Amino acid sequence: MKRAIAIIGIVTCAMVSVFAQPAARYETPAGQRVRFAPVDIYMDSGSRALAAYQFELKALSGDVQIVGVEGGAHPAFRQPPYYDPAALANNRIIIAAFNTGSDLLTGHTRVATVHLRIVGDAEPEYEVKLMAAADAEGDKIPAEITYAKGEQK
User: Fold this and answer.
1) pLDDT surpassing 80 at residue 35
2) pLDDT at residue number 20
């Protein structure tokens, strides 16, 4: 049901406005290398049209700070997804997006990119967990989520 997707969107927007915090200030430890890198998030919904998703991304190791989130490759999810700023603590983020249009994605597509600030030379390890995936009727669909690390020069 499109109504269920709309309710998810309203709740997500409410969470963002309630938990909104000023931007964090990042200080570079003396003598430490600092770099920025993206983590691309991919969803594979097979032949089913993906209308809504929610996932959690965690940094399991490394000194990582989340500094930005951008939308995906498909027009249905090109706008930056919603996220809970309060969930940015402890090197993790919960992200959700929905689209009630008719041009929805199917198959394997990048749905979001999370930009990170990494301190030190250690290569962080990540975990991504799909919390929900739904079609335009609001019904749960089977989907797989993966990520790919990148390095910005």
Assistant:
1) yes
2) 41
